[in-house]
Amino acid sequence: MKPQDFPEDIRPHLIPAPAGDMVYRCLECGAEHGIEELLYTCPECRGLLLLEDRAQDRLKEHPGAFWRRLFDYRKMLNIPALKGIFLYYELIAPVIPLSDIIYLGEGHTPQVAANDSLKSEVGAAFYYKNDGQNPSASFKDRGMAAALSYLNHLAGKPGVGKMLAICASTGDTSAAAALYAAYLGDKVASAVLLPHGKVTPQQLAQPLGSGARVLEIPGVFDDCMKVVEALADNYQVALLNSKNPWRIRGQESYAYEIAQGFDYDVAGKAVVVPVGNAGNITAIMQGFLRLHDLGIIEALPRVVGVQSVHADPVFRYYAQPDKTKRVFAPVTVQASVAQAAMIGNPVSMPRVIRLVDEYTRRAGEGAVLVVEVTEQEIMDSMLLANRHGHIACTQGGESLAGFRAALSQGAVAKDEVAVLDATAHHLKFIGFQQMYFDDAFPPEFEVTPKPEYQNRPQLLATGETEIQKKVADLAGQIAALLALSPKK
Length: 488
Hints:
Shape: globular
Number of helices: 17
C-alpha cells in the first residue's frame, strides 16, 4: 500500500525522520553519556547502561489511540526499513536514519494458539510466539537488527574505520551477530567466542557459514563473557551481547508485537520467557512499560521468568521473600538442555532488579515472578508442545514447563491467556531430542525418557523382488501397522 492511499491524518507520520535525543544512562550513578562512542558500562562507576531518549515526552503529544492507529497502518507499508522491528521506529532508535536500518526479515513472528488437546493437557489457553522463525532462527535477531543498524549508522561517519563486532555466545547470539555483520560486508568484521563443547553442531555451523572468526575457549558461557568484557574494556571492539543497550532496544519489539497481536488489550495476559543472560526479560518488561507510559496499553500483562534448577541465580534471588535480605549471587551452572539459558551470572541482573521494582509498583505484587523447573520437565514439555504442532526449542520447552509450574502454584490463574516464548527454532536443538529418543542422556542432565514421548523410524523389510509384488507387500504391511480400512 502506498503512502498516498492512507488516511490524511496518518500520512505525515507514516515515514519517520530521525528525531529524539538519545543518551546512555547509568543504572548505578545516573550519569549520562553521549552515544557517539560505543559504551557498555559507565566510564565513571562501571555500572550498566540503558538507552534513554531525553526528548521522549514529545511522543506524549499524541494520545495512545494515535500510536495504535499509526502502528497498525504502518504494517501495510512496503518499505523494508519499516517492515521489521523498526515498524515501532519512534520507540526503538529514532536517531537512526531509515537509510541505515538493516532489515533481514526479523520480527513479526507468528503467535500460534495451542490446540484444544494441548490446552486440555496443560489446563489453560496459551500461545507460542515462534521467534525461531527469525532469519537466524532465534529471537536474538531482534536485538542485532537494532545494534547493527546503529553500527551501520556510525560506520558512515567520517574517520570511522572498519569495526570488529564481537560477542560471547551459547550459540544463538553468535549466529545472529555473524549473520547481520556479514550483511554489512566490509564495514564490520565479526568474531565470536564460544564455550568449547557447549554449543550444538547446528548453532556452531551458523557463524562459520556467515564467515565469522569463531574462537572456542574452555569453560562455560560465563567464562566467554568475562573475556569479551575485557576486550570491550581495553580494545576498539563493538560488543554485541545483551550488555549492549541497543540490543535491548531491539528486543523490546517482542512486547510491542504481543500487544499489537491482542489489539493492545493485554489485561489478563501472561508472558512467559526463559531467563538466561536476562537481556530478553528486561527488554520485554521495558517494552510493556514504555507502551504503558504512552497510553498505548492501559494495563500491564504478567511476566513470568523461568529458570532450570541447573542454572537458577535469578530464581534464587527472588525466592527470598524479604526484599531487604535479597543478595544476588552467581551460581555454577550444571549441564542443561536449555543451553541458551545456561548462564550462572547474567550481565543484565541490575536491569532486572530495577525493572521488576518499577513493574511491580505499577501492576502490583505478583506482576513479575520467576519459577524454577527441572531438566526433565523442560524436555517433556518441549516434546509435548511439538507433538501438538509447534516448533519449540528446549528453551520453548522451558517456557511451557514454567507456565505449568506457575499454574500449579496458583501464581497464574487458569483464565489468564499466556504467550510463551519459543526463543529459537526446534531444529537448532535437535540433538537433545535425539538423545531423548535414544535414551542417551549423560547422567548429569538428569533426564529419563518417557516411552510415550520417544519416537524412532521403523524399517520395513520385504523378500519380494518383483516390483509389483514388492509394492503390494510393503503397502500391505503399512496398512496393517496403521490400521487402515480398505476402500469399499
